[in-house]
Specification:
The complex is a heterodimer. Chain A is built from 13 helices and 13 strands. Chain A has a 5-stranded mixed β-sheet. In chain A, helix 1 packs across helix 4 and helix 4 crosses helix 8. Helix content of chain B is 68%, strand content 0%. Classes of the chains: A alpha/beta, B mainly alpha.
Chain lengths: 397, 304
């Protein structure tokens, strides 16, 4: 089992872990934040599902409807509740065994698959001739969030096929699907599904947060299997999420670009939590209403990670990198902080072995911090370490 | 309805308050046993320590023009630890003077949380230096018997349950274990230094038994009758004096074991014992300061 120093074990709050993905969301409109991408539709145009709305293929319409607004970096589309799929959406035409890197990347570049900072096609281009090991991350230690877990539970074969696509594209011979050691059911089923596959193995990691973080996962893997030549092998490992490979496989099979995302909607103000396949650009209020959120008790909404949510305040519509929407009551409100008692817990839990309290006190900048929030979680004095994360993100920008 | 948040929300249920309460609760079995055994004497020593500490803290803050707040539970814990390092026959005046010194030291040394010194032990040593005759140290303890080559009159079971006349904190091993196991259960402490201390102490005691003919028995008596268990659970687990790096914690425990073993065998007094631990604390203060500076310089170089 892969393991790492530090980390925390918060209450998981995985109430939707056994809830199947709900597929029935059809919002009245969507609003896509296209920013500076060149828009290729006009107000009044009818668009079909999967039709591109920017020339760079980074944004596609998730619904069938009419464009009502294209101002200020947003495209708003009203839903006409039809199911017309765009002619642009054609499945991958070649057999995988005959496909080359260019075939795959040129196909993927039009499907705008993005779950994190970079689009998948960009990452594949950067990895060509460099990467020899692929890690597909299936673990999910973030509290509340179950979207990845549900994708793994319901779509194992698709994940395996998606992994094989990336392996073919980058000519990788070995891949590992990483999964939490305590997720016994999925482990067993994955191993069963990979019985006749010698190129993909199942590797377990601990259930400590943030075990599935790409940097931590890579470090754990290298420490265990490549401890002698760690530095030279570090650049040869590519980490992708299982939701990414699942989306990749779907695009190959249906031709549809990434127009929706499985989002966990939960929190103690939500009466009917769900894992919902949500069109990109859905109004978050609509999502919360769909899950019967108690407005009277609602105190705040947290996007993605409730331990270290650094999401922008102007997020009112779902985006590609949103996997979890939490509606919380006052019970989770931020309390005041106290003086440091030198307990060293922040240092003990830091997965990259930094000294958060020293970084905070001396206003030291570092790019090593992965902004996981474990230090803020563990601190008994409730000191807020977010200035470190903000400085780190500013450095990266 | 839009109330988006950029603040972290999920936090550990542990707070500074719960940690301090855990430590104080862990001491309660020891205090109760001491009161049952010595009745009013212990109650007077412990309560005068605590009250003197509280009053000194308030006066100190008033005189230094700091914000007047109630002393934290950490101060009270320090006062309790200090009182438990005293002997049953100690004069209450010692308790009061010691608590005053303790409170002043706390305010000076630990205001920014940067000190690696375990303050109650320092206060104890200073108080002993000022008023040695008021301590009324017992003349014959089970450990002195072993040092003189004799197996003590008390059986290991009696020592375990609590009839050894040593300091108030080391009377009953079962009381110490109850408190220590509570701290382990609550995960309020780090036991790296303690485990290294225990392991090396046992190895050294077994390797160099005082009474060679009855090696295991003398090791057992040494474990039960010296301050070892009290130090393991309540001194080496102190957060403030714990080194930052996990490896250094093991090293600190091992060094404490080596030094206290040497002191125990050459010139054993309780204060000699505590001085050994203070010396290790001071040494690690210097080691940690140097280590922090080296780490900081490395980080700056890497960032460049």
């Amino acid at each position: 089992m892969l393991n790492f120093k530090g980390g925390i074990r918060p209450d998981s709050h995985k109430y939707t872990k056994n809830f199947n993905i709900t597929d029935s969301l059809s919002p009245e409109f969507v609003k896509l934040a296209v920013n500076d991408s060149p828009i290729c539709v006009n107000v009044g145009d009818n668009v079909a599902i999967g039709q591109k709305i920017t020339n760079d293929y980074r944004f596609h319409s998730p619904i069938c409807g009419t464009v009502t607004n294209t101002d200020c970096g947003y495209v708003t589309i009203n839903n006409n509740h039809e199911c017309t799929v765009s002619n642009e959406c054609k499945p991958f035409s070649k057999k995988l065994s005959d496909a080359t890197f260019n075939d795959i990347v040129s196909f993927v570049s039009k499907k705008s698959i993005r779950f994190d900072d970079d689009y998948l096609d960009t990452r594949l281009k950067k990895s060509l001739n460099k990467v020899s090991i692929l890690l597909v991350s299936c673990g999910e230690t973030v509290p509340f969030s179950c979207s990845r877990n549900r994708i793994l539970s319901e779509h194992k074969k698709e994940i395996i096929y998606g992994t094989q696509i990336i392996m073919k594209a980058l000519s990788i011979r070995k891949a590992a699907i990483t999964i939490e050691a305590l997720d016994l059911k999925n482990r067993f089923e994955l191993k069963k599904a990979l019985k006749n596959n010698n190129n993909i193995s199942v590797v377990t990691h601990s259930s400590k947060y943030p075990a599935e973080h790409p940097k931590i996962l890579k470090d754990q893997f290298l420490n265990k299997y490549f401890s002698n030549d760690r530095d030279t092998t570090a650049d040869n490992v590519l980490v992708v999420g299982c939701e990414e490979v699942f989306e990749l496989y779907n695009s190959f099979r249906t031709g549809l670009p990434m127009i929706s995302r499985v989002i966990t909607v939960d929190g103690d103000a939500v009466l009917s939590p769900k894992n919902i396949k949500t069109p990109i650009g859905t109004d978050i209020n609509y999502l919360l209403n769909f899950c019967e959120t108690n407005i009277n008790e609602l105190s705040s909404i947290v996007i993605n990670n409730p331990i270290c949510s650094s999401y922008n305040k102007d997020c009112e519509y779902t985006k590609k990198d949103i996997s979890c929407v939490l509606a919380l009551t006052k019970k989770f409100e931020q309390v005041g902080s106290y003086n440091c008692i030198s307990c060293k817990k922040c240092r003990d839990v830091c997965p990259v072995e930094l000294d958060p309290i020293e970084l905070l006190k001396n206003q030291i900048e570092t790019t090593k911090c992965i902004c996981c929030g474990a230090c803020t979680y563990a601190c008994p004095a409730k000191i807020d370490f977010s200035p470190i994360y903000e400085r780190t993100e500013a450095d990266y920008e | 309805m839009n109330k988006y948040s950029v603040n972290t929300y999920l936090k550990s249920p542990e707070t500074t308050y719960t940690i301090s309460i855990d430590y104080i609760l862990a001491l309660l079995p020891i205090i109760f046993w001491s009161i049952i055994r010595f009745k009013l004497t212990t109650a007077v020593i412990v309560s005068s320590c605590v009250f003197a500490d509280i009053i000194t803290d308030v006066v100190f803050k008033f005189l230094s023009k700091k914000k007047l707040t109630l002393p934290s539970l950490k101060n009270i814990y320090g006062a309790l630890i200090f009182s438990l390092t005293l002997y049953p026959e100690t004069s209450p005046v010692v308790a009061i003077v010691g608590a005053i010194i303790l409170s002043i030291l706390f305010n000076i040394l630990n205001s920014e949380g940067n000190s690696y010194i375990f303050v109650p032990l320092v206060a104890r040593v200073i108080t002993f230096a000022l008023m040695p005759k008021e301590f009324h140290a017992p003349e014959q303890t089970p450990y002195f018997s072993i040092l003189n080559g004799m197996i003590p009159n008390e059986s290991p079971v009696e020592l375990f349950l609590g009839s050894a006349d040593v300091t108030l904190g080391s009377l009953s091993i079962v009381a110490i274990l109850l408190g220590g196991l509570y701290l382990i259960f609550r995960k309020s402490s780090d036991f790296r230094a303690s485990s290294a201390y225990l392991l090396l102490s046992l190895v050294l005691s077994l390797a160099f038994p005082i009474i060679k003919a009855r090696g295991v028995e003398s090791t057992l008596y040494e474990l039960l009758s010296s301050e070892m268990l009290f130090i393991i659970f309540f001194v080496l687990t102190d957060m403030q004096s714990t080194p930052k790096k996990k490896g250094l914690r093991y090293l600190k425990g091992a060094l404490c074991a080596l030094l206290t073993f040497t002191i125990k065998r050459t010139n054993y007094t309780i204060d000699g014992f505590y001085i050994g631990i203070i010396v290790v604390d001071l040494l690690f203060s210097i080691i940690c300061m140097i280590s922090d500076k080296i780490e900081f310089a490395k980080e700056c170089k890497n960032e460049q």
